[in-house]
User: What shape does this take?
Amino acid sequence: GIQVEQSPPDLILQEGANSTLRCNFSDSVNNLQWFHQNPWGQLINLFYIPSGTKQNGRLSATTVATERYSLLYISSSQTTDSGVYFCAVETWAGSYQLTFGKGTKLSVIP
Amino acid sequence: GAGVSQTPSNKVTEKGKYVELRCDPISGHTALYWYRQSLGQGPEFLIYFQGTGAADDSGLPNDRFFAVRPEGSVSTLKIQRTERGDSAVYLCASSLLAGGRTDTQYFGPGTRLTVL
Assistant: This one.
């Protein structure tokens, strides 16, 4: 099956700093989503981005499908950004299941 | 509108017992998914429903796991003869599907299952 690798696995930032999270995948995908899992375990949708660039406030994402990677940018980080960020891809395997990476654990300190 | 809801939020059971986990998807979403998340890992796919039928159950680990969605809305994940290795957070997601095109999957808060 498809492999999804996220880097870095852990990241500590000072409040106000910027960061880039990376997601590499091993095969063509129909869909890619970025999620934030907050400290209470809730998975929150950030972007649905099979290709191109999208922005939402301090967050933006770019997927280059032909090169099999996606980037999540976080600018002016806040303590509420802490948590685990997951990249998940959908490949057509008879269903629309998502395959998740292992996540990047982000800690933003005041 | 309301998001995906799951009940119970926590379930503690003893090895060998039977459990049922419930998922209420977003109204109007035809696709429903179950995933399982172990500590420190990303969610792993279990089963996918399109309407009432299980379109893909390739992620179910063995025949102790079964899921139904009899009216195309609420779904129940059933685990027989629970084992300690079944302990995990069970996540449900739903999405709109139209014309064979996928859409964002929205996740519920999960049910934390602990098998003693």
